Amino acid sequence: MKVLIVGSGGREHAIAASVAKSGRVDKIYCAPGNAGIGKIAECVPIGAMEFEKLAAFAKEHAIDFTIIGMDDPLVGGIVDVFEEAGLKVFGPRKHAAILEGSKAFSKDLMKKYGIPTAAYETFDDPKAALEYLETANMPIVLKADGLALGKGVLICNTLEEAKAGVKEIMEDKKFGAAGNHMVVEEFMTGREVSVLSFVDGKTIQIMSSAQDHKRAKDGDQGLNTGGMGTFSPSPFYTAEIDAFCKEHIYQKTVDAMAAEGRPFKGVIFFGLMLTEEGPKVLEYNARFGDPEAQVVLPRMKNDIIDVMEACTDGTLDQLKLEFEDNAAVCVVLASDGYPVSYQKGFEISGEETFDGKEGYYCFHAGTKADEQGRIVTNGGRVLGITAKGADLKEARANAYAAAEWISFENKYMRHDIGKAIEELT
Ligand code: AMP
Ligand code: GLY
After folding, report:
1. How many CB atoms lie within 10 A of CB 247?
2. Are 27 and 42 in contact (CB under 8 A)?
3. pTM for the full predicted model
4. What separation in Å is there between the alpha carbon of 130 and the centre of ligand 2?
5. How far does residue 273's CA lie from ligand 2's centre (Å)?
6. Which atom of ligand 1 is nearest the CA belonging to 187?
7. What pLDDT digit, counting tens, does each position of 118-134 carry?
8. Which of 106, 149, 194 gets mutated to test ligand 2 (max ligand atoms within 8 A of its CB)?
9. CB 262 within 8 A of CB 100
10. Where in 296-350 does DSSP place strands (E)?
11. What whole-number distance in Å separates Cα of residue 25 and Cα of residue 2?
C-alpha cells in the first residue's frame, strides 16, 4: 500500500521509520517532510495546512492511508477534508481535535466528567483576569487557550509576573489568536509523565510511558520549549498509577468525547502530573508527542499500520499493543539560542556513523538539503538522537555517546536528559 504522512518534524520522521518497517507498505510520501525523512520517503512540497492540495495529491497518487502527525492541521480540520474526499486518514476530526485546540474546552470537559485536573478559571476579558489574579495564590499558571507551539504557558511566581503575563497573552497577543481566551490554573507540583494512546472512538489502548524535558537548560532551568529530550518507559509511572489512570482518566476521557458527540479517533496524548493527591491531567494533545514519539515508537512491536487502521475502523479492541521490554532515550540536538533566537544553515556532519547500527536513530526535525545537497540546520530543534538499551541507564549512555557522533556549528543539548533515572539506581 501507499502511505502519506503529513508533517515535517522529528515526530513525523519517527512515524515514517515505523511505517517503513511495516510489511504492508511499498511506498511512503511525506508532505512537506525534511532531509532525514527524504531518505525513507518521497518528500512532497505541499504545506501541512494546504488541505485541498494534500487531498488532491492523495487522490492523484492513489494513497491508501494518510497519517496526520501535526497538531495545526488536525485542529484546522484536515481529517474532515480527507474524509469528505473519500480518503482513509488517521487522526481526529476537527470537532474532536478541539481536545488539544482549546484548553478551555478540555478543562470544561474534565470538570464536567470528573476527570482529575488542576482547579481553573477561564477569561476572555483581560480586566476580569487581572481582578481575579489580585486575590489568587501564587505561583499561578496562565495558559493561552489555543495552539502556541507548546509555548503558550506561563508560570508566574508573583502578582507582577502574572499581570505582565496577562498583558503578553491577552493584550500584546504574543501567541496570536491563541490568546483571545485564557485559562488561569492552580500551580501543581510533581513529576510529569507523558502517556500516549491509540483510540478508535470507543476503545483506548495505552502505549509505553515516557517523560519529556521541556525546559531549555540543564536542571529544568530556562524557557519552555517543544521538548529537549525524552526517555521511555518512565519508572515513575508505576502499576498503581497506571491502574488509577485507567479508572479515572483514560477511558473516561474517551467516553466523555463520545458523549459530547465528538468521538475521538487517533492518538490522545495525556500530559500527566503525578501530584501528592494522585495523577492529574496537565493537558491533552490530539497527536503523538514530539520528542515522545522518538522513544515510544521504536519500542513498539506491532505493525503501526495495523494499529492505525484499527483506530480508523473502530476495531482496536481486537488488537494487543506490545512494546519491547527495554528502554530508549532521545537527546535533542538544538541550535544554540533556541527557543528565542538562533542561526540556521550550518552543515551537519557525522550522520553516516548511524548507518547499520541497530537500536540507534538520528531523527531529523529542523533540517534541509541546501542547493549543493548538503544537509544543514533549519530550525531550533535540529535532530533527535535516540538509542535503545537493555535498561534506561544503558539507553542513556548510548544516546549521549551517539549525540557526540554529530557535529554542527551551534550545536546545543541538555546534558541531563534522563538523569532522574539515577535517583532510582
Ligand atoms: P502544557 O502545554 O499545558 O503541558 O504546559 C506546559 C508545561 O507547563 C507543562 O509541561 C508543565 O511543566 C507546566 N505546567 C502546565 N500547567 C501547570 C500547572 N497547572 N502546574 C504546574 N506546572 C504546569
Ligand atoms: N513533547 C511535548 C509535546 O509534544 O507536546
Report:
1. 10
2. yes
3. 0.95
4. 29
5. 14
6. 20
7. 999 999 999 999 999 99
8. 194
9. no
10. 327-335
11. 6
